[in-house]
Fold this protein.
Amino acid sequence: MVQDFGGAARFAVENYGDSALARRFGVKRYPAIFVDDILVATPKDFGFFGKGEGTDTGRYAPLKSAASHRRFRADLTRMVKLVLAGRTDLARARARTAQGGEIASLPALSLVGLDGAPIRRKALAGRVVVVEFWATWCPPCRGTLAWLGDVARRHGDRVTVVALAVESDEPGVRAVMKELGAPITWAMATPALARKFGDISAVPTLFVFDRDGRTRSVHYGAPPELHAEVEAELDALLAPRR
């Protein structure tokens, strides 16, 4: 799309964790789209990875649909044209407002795991809970799931790991479940469940909740430091209370 402007526009990519622009706007997830310093699209606009996602919310979801691509391209093109024409006032008036998307505590859960057992928040009380949103088509997710299996083995019943599959077919999820053999709770995530977690716009997304159900951290993607950071958090959360 940028090429359509004949060199008048340039496309740049920034790591959301290192972006001063993202920090300035309080953007804590990805993807987020800016034209200069005008926020055009937030992670919320791209929805979550869930079958049955509708387009009645005004977001570009499901993003892989041709209609969503056309809508996103048209909106972005309109904003670039306004900026190039010097109409930044009008562009800013149409800009998006950043939404953190962070949740304060573990949402109420009412689903059945792939082993047939119910998953309820009440049953998780008193445990540290790790929730990973993943998809069968996501290569980094395999690595995080294998690692989370090791985490579950080390900590036993003090930590519950829940793997929620999005935009995936159940047979494929069961195949990964069998392949990894990880002692974690596996389940299919519905769009409604993803919304309870503040909407999921990328996989893997990992939540850590303390023994009182409060959100302690949220991790997006699979950066090199992910394992060390989460394991340090778990050690702190599992330390004896004073």
